[in-house]
C-alpha cells in the first residue's frame, strides 16, 4: 500500500466530481491511500502552495483555464517541484505538444474514461515511488570523489571527517577513505541533523559521540578528535540532552 497526495486543478466543477468518483474506485481497487484536493484555477493552487507550504506528488491539470493556462501552471510547478508528476486533462488534442514541453507524464482527452485514468494513475504511482526511493538513497548515501573516480558511503557508518590539506579523510570503523573534496564541500552534502563541526578541521557524526571533554570529543574504541572553544558549549549541551533522553526512556 502506498500513499499519494494528488491535486486536481480544473475550472469545471462537474469534471472534478467525476474524477473524485473515479479516484474512489481506483483506491478501492488498489488499496492505495490517496489524499485529494481540488482547485478551480492555477492562481488558487499556487496561492495555497505558497501560504501553507503544501505540495503534492501528482498534479492533474486542465489545460484551458481562465487567468492561467494549465501549461503555464505546469511550468511554474516544475520550477518549484522538479520531481513532481504532472498530467494534463483537456478537451483539445492540439495542446499535446505543449504538454510534452512541460514534461507531462500523461495527457488525457475529455470526457475521460475510467480505464484511461486508471492506466495513467498506475504510471504515476510508479514514477512517484521511483522519486521517493531516489530521495531516500540520497539521504542514506554520500557520494565522494576519490583518486579512482567516486565512492558511495553509507552516512551512518562515517565516524568523523578530517581536513587534510585540500582533501578530507572519511574515518570509518573498517578504515579510512581519502577524498578529493574540501571539508566544506563534504559538509554541504551531509545530513545536517547528523553531522556537526567540532573544529575547523573536523566534522563528527553526533551519534558516535561518547563524551565531550574540554579539548576533545571521545568516540568509541578510544578515538579522540579535537574540539574548539567555538563549538564546545553547543556540543556539550546536545550530548547531555541526549543522555537525559536515553535515561528517561529506560526508566
What would your notes on this structure say?
- The protein contains 7 helices and 15 strands.
- The model has no long low-confidence stretch (mean pLDDT 89).
- The protein is elongated.
- It has helices at residues 13-30, 42-51, 70-80, 96-101, 114-140, 183-189, 229-250, and strands at 3-9, 33-39, 58-62, 85-90, 106-109, 141-146, 149-154, 158-164, 167-172, 175-179, 195-199, 202-205, 211-212, 216-218, 224-226.
- With 251 residues, the chain is of the alpha/beta class.
- A 5-stranded parallel sheet has the order 2-1-3-4-5, with helices on both faces.
- Strand 1 (3-9), helix 1 (13-30) and strand 2 (33-39) form a beta-alpha-beta unit.
SSE layout and pairing:
Layout: E1 3-9, H1 13-30, E2 33-39, H2 42-51, E3 58-62, H3 70-80, E4 85-90, H4 96-101, E5 106-109, H5 114-140, E6 141-146, E7 149-154, E8 158-164, E9 167-172, E10 175-179, H6 183-189, E11 195-199, E12 202-205, E13 211-212, E14 216-218, E15 224-226, H7 229-250
Parallel strand pairs: 1-2, 1-3, 3-4, 4-5
Antiparallel strand pairs: 6-7, 8-9, 8-12, 9-10, 11-12, 13-14, 14-15
Q: How would you describe this structure in keywords?
A:
alpha/beta, 5-stranded parallel beta sheet, 251 residues, 5-stranded antiparallel beta sheet
Number of helices: 7
- Strand elements, count: 15
Sheet of most strands? 5 strands, parallel
Task: State the secondary-structure class.
Answer: alpha/beta
Shape: elongated
Low-confidence stretches: none
What percentage of amino acids are in beta strands? 25-35%
Order of helices and strands: EHEHEHEHEHEEEEEHEEEEEH
Distance between the termini: 36 Å
Chain-averaged pLDDT: 89
What is the helical fraction, as a range of percent?
40-55%
